[in-house]
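Subject: Protein record for review, amino acid sequence with backbone structure tokens
Category: Structural biology, sequence-to-fold work with a learned token vocabulary.
Format: Residues in single-letter code; tokens as whole numbers, each standing for a residue.
Body of memo: The sequence and its backbone structure tokens, given next.
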Amino acid sequence: MKIKMKPAGNRPVHERIGDYSEVEQTLNSEDRMLQASRCMDCGIPFCHWGCPVDNLIPEWNELLYRGDWKGASDRLHATNNFPEFTGRICPAPCEHSCVLNIGGEPVTIRENEAAIVEKAFAEGYIRPVPPPNRTGRRVAVIGSGPAGMAAADQLNKAGHTVTMFEKDEKIGGLLRFGIPDFKLNKSTIDRRLEIMMAEGLEVKTGIQVGRDISGKEIMQQYDAVCLAIGSMYPRDLSVEGRDFDGIHFAMEYLTQQNRVNDGAYVAYDRRITAEGRRVLVIGGGDTGSDCVGTAIRQKAASVTQIEILPRPPETRAADNPWPYHAKTLKTSTSHEEGCERMWGLSTVRFVGMQHRVTHAEVEEVSMEHVNGSVSAVPVAGTRRLIGADLILLAMGFLHPVYEGLLDELGVALTSRNNVRVDGHMATNLEKVFAAGDAVNGASLVVTAIASGRRVAQRIDRYLQKGGI
């Protein structure tokens, strides 16, 4: 009650739009400890309930407040393998559930988390601790996003010999190639990976299982297999003019820029750039926001973002009470940098000249209940054109890419084409398990980490007992 909420804040807009360095600033240690003191150690820790990885938030906040940074780091790592990731990019459902958020000023849990892990790295508290014994069992983890990394880390710590396969040239999945550097500096991935490899994790990059090595070979060589391939099949717009030049999926755009930042060469005729162009981002989620921030840094002439859903309320609606995640208007740091946002718009078609897109025709829609479900119903007489030379489709992902490995192995899918698993996170195939977005659909990094930890526990139990 005495200490007010004090966020670390962000770098000035005029400064940060000129580079791809992280936007968020940091508080000094004394201020951070004071912010931790705001945690009330509630009798019922709703923050813990709201956290997908079950972070022991009141405990490490208390240790941080008392200046025990090592103790706080130990408690933080007890439930979260990678707090340096979640401390930077998690939307913090814990803060939405914080009791102090009833008054609109929750504990700065996410920032406290990031501060603890950064201090732990700086002071050398985080160092390689290889398992004392090896079980002799071999596990293949296919995919190196947050779910795959968490599963591999836990299984390696349990003493199994783990090989993590990644189809791209570096480890990290969408952590590395999908999330912009201004939100997550990729040195944080490299730093953690060095620790994991020093503990005995084997990493193989540039290998797509199902193409470069068959699923059959993997099944023969390993005692258990974990599928953590993500949900990479993007939602498309099947409308007139979709084949015009200048229309790209968001991930094509974001991954290319991340590779350029990493020093990769991209030929001029393959470069997707917003420089000097009118950019239209279709999709109002985090991926769309990442496109906005990237386009601004590429010196776009203008950036517009549209969303088919109606504008969210500024405050919680009556049917969205605390401690549930607040479904309110979210303004990201990218939006603050300069972007026109519109809601309740559906794309009807794309218009172009000489096979190059010049406009998107949109119309207003209202969300109405039709035959038991909510549908976007067009509003008559509202069609109009939005000028755009570069259009980025950021409407989410549908399901994992099943052509290749999943088809080869015969992995059963759900009605939504996600990987089907049972209560043990096992697929229909003996010794094959799955986790993360491949199972749950596209979700949060923190949810993927939690899923990776759970599947590792199931696989460990399977290997120890010789069956589920």
User: Anything to note?
Assistant: The chain has a mean pLDDT of 96. Residues 97 and 112 are 16 Å apart (CA to CA). The chain is about 35% helix and 20% strand.
